[in-house]
Amino acid sequence: MIIFSDLDGTLLDHATYSFDAARPALDVVKANGIPLIFATSKTAAEIEPLREATGIHLPAIVENGAGIAWPGHADGQEDAYRQVRAALDRVPKPLRALYRSFGDMDDAEVAGRTGLSLEGASLARRRLFSEPGLFSGSAEERAAFLDALKAEGLSAVQGGRFLTISAGASKADRMTEIVAWHEAETGRAGRPTLALGDAANDIAMLEAADYGVVVANRAHPPLAPLAGEHAGRISRTEKEGPAGWNEAVLSFIRRVGAIEKGTAQ
């Protein structure tokens, strides 16, 4: 199996960014050599400390799918981010003024809006592919803003906190890339995939995986029913964040193990 997991509000607590409640499942994942791929709105710079803390050193889907962070590779150039910023600034000024992005903020403001430390906020502002921010206008103004972005070849996806703009792929697109990479690396094809997430920016990934889990996060409205949920391919946790993640991952590992042994009920 291969596990793809969102971070904030899923593996990491929405408020504290702790993954302590998920440690039992993380230990089982590592002990059994199960690939765990982070799929997050975070930057490549933010992923490195988390790799060290969790002991997970695998490719990560970053900036909502706008890029992939490969272990041991330098961050690379910021050309994609500069292009997004330039296109964003060509949006009509009245609409642009309603969107306050990380590039418009300093570290202190990002820290205040996210609950990150100043060091964490600095890492979050090291963008390579995308630009998150807050839109303060009406529903009609938001629709006009999204139309203006589309005209510039940009798209936006809503996460648990921020509306993130990019010209890149989605988490689901990158999931396909990493599955292909893993099959080439291991020579093993057809391994079941599990995706876990809590917000709108996770929907495509949840629906594209063989199995999906919507992790409870009461900090924002719950997701509407997803494709495959009625059939039982996608489930929801009762517990929030890493506690829900822990139960869901342990349950899935037991389920797949039973199927492989031919003892599933």
TrEMBL record:
SUPFAM superfamilies: HAD-like. GO terms for biological process: mannosylglycerate biosynthetic process. One of its GO terms (molecular function) is mannosyl-3-phosphoglycerate phosphatase activity. Coiled coil: none annotated. The keyword Magnesium applies. The keyword Magnesium applies. Keywords: Hydrolase, Magnesium, Metal-binding. Pfam families: Hydrolase_3 (PF08282). GO terms for cellular component: cytosol. PANTHER family: HAD SUPERFAMILY HYDROLASE-LIKE, TYPE 3, PHOSPHOSERINE PHOSPHATASE. This is HAD-IIB family hydrolase. It comes from Georhizobium profundi.
